[in-house]
Specification:
The chain has a domain of 148 residues. 71% of the residues lie in helices and 2% in strands. The protein is globular. By secondary structure, it is mainly alpha-helical. The longest helix is centred in the first third of the chain and has 35 residues. Helix 3 crosses helix 6. A two-stranded antiparallel sheet has the order 1-2.
Length: 342
């Protein structure tokens, strides 16, 4: 009696090409929406300048528009890469989604504290909103923010973090990508450092050079030169991080401690709003910041120190990925090494 034929082995992964195409289209749509925000922001600022009798555009406007434009282009490129099932697109989208989610959670916590104060602030005529309308508006805004900053990035993390999506990209693109040799947490750190370098370089170009330095605000050409040098140092640290060089880790770790100490000392002695005044923010906007109470006095000092503390926690967490000089890093496993594991 012949033995029955063995059933075929189940596939090592489920092909997610259709999902990659769908999520890629969503990213392109999001990029287009952000691009449309640029003329709207410019138009709103133009109207505000006309109503304020000679008010000029703040230098920060150019910086904000540059950020929106860059973000729109990145989303479109990642969307196209996702449609083409590129390895680098999956890795970068997952890094971006995690960053979006983490920032969104902190932003939501901040907005829960900030929105009641902001909506309760009297308008130009001194009138305030009724409590019922205030509560309804606050709930609506928090729901919208929760969808945009928490739910949406969480969906992207869930999809692009799937082993099936990873295996689909690797199977359809057998050739290794430049993102494969760098663990995702380390790749995220590298990209954040690179973004920081670009931001520091943009500060003097936008006329926003003001650097807190152990009790003083450095401004003018000295601050501009400092930002250029810091941008170069951050760019080197990003490259060293990508190469998994321990020197890059030590540089950022020490720099964050120095930054936290400098901001703590400076903002305990200097009004933080003076920094925004030097950076060219309109006086009306500065007074709005003062009324909220978050960017005045010791609050700004401790917020800056707390942010640096979170960076130190992250650096300690990714320390295991760095190797001393002369020790080759362990290669990142791929689908070619065998079936994907659950």
């Amino acid at each position: 009696m012949n033995a029955p034929d063995a059933s075929p082995a189940p596939p090592a992964y489920k092909d997610r090409h259709a999902g990659l195409v769908a999520f890629g289209i969503v990213q392109i749509i999001l990029g287009g929406f952000i691009a449309l925000m640029i003329p709207l922001i410019f138009f709103a600022q133009h109207i505000a300048a006309r109503q304020q009798a000679g008010a000029v555009y703040p230098p920060s406007l150019a910086f904000v528009l540059a950020v929106y434009g860059t973000l729109a282009m990145v989303l479109v490129c990642l969307g196209i890469g996702s449609i083409m099932t590129r390895r680098w697109a999956r890795a970068l989208t997952l890094v971006g989604a995690w960053s979006w989610l983490i920032i969104g959670v902190f932003s939501m916590a901040f907005q829960i504290i900030l929105l009641p104060r902001l909506l309760a602030t009297p308008g130009p005529t001194g009138a305030t909103m009724p409590h019922a309308a205030l509560a309804a508006m606050m709930v609506t805004m928090l729901v919208v923010l929760g969808i945009v900053f928490v739910a949406l990035p969480a969906i992207f993390v869930w999809f692009y973090g799937s082993r099936h999506v990873k295996a689909t990209c690797e199977a359809r693109n057998p050739r290794p990508s430049w993102t494969d040799g760098c663990p995702l947490p380390l790749l995220a750190l590298c990209l954040w450092l690179a973004s920081g370098a670009i931001g520091m370089l943009a500060m003097p170009l936008a006329g926003m050079s003001a650097l807190p330095l152990f009790g003083k605000l450095v401004t003018g050409p000295g601050a501009a030169l400092a930002f250029v040098l810091l941008a170069a140092a951050w760019a080197w640290a990003a490259w060293a991080t990508y190469r998994r060089q321990l020197a890059g880790w030590w540089f950022i770790f020490i720099a964050m401690i120095v930054f936290a100490a400098s901001c703590l000392v400076t903002f305990l002695r200097v009004d933080p709003l003076e920094m925004y005044r030097v950076m060219g923010y309109p006086e009306q906007q500065i007074e709005q910041m003062r009324s909220l109470g978050f960017l005045t006095g010791p609050t700004m000092a401790w917020l800056s120190a707390g942010g640096a503390g979170l960076w130190l926690v992250l650096l300690l967490w990714v320390r295991r990925y760095f190797k001393p000089a002369g020790v080759p890093p362990k290669p990142t496993p791929s689908v070619a090494d065998g079936p994907a594991q659950p």
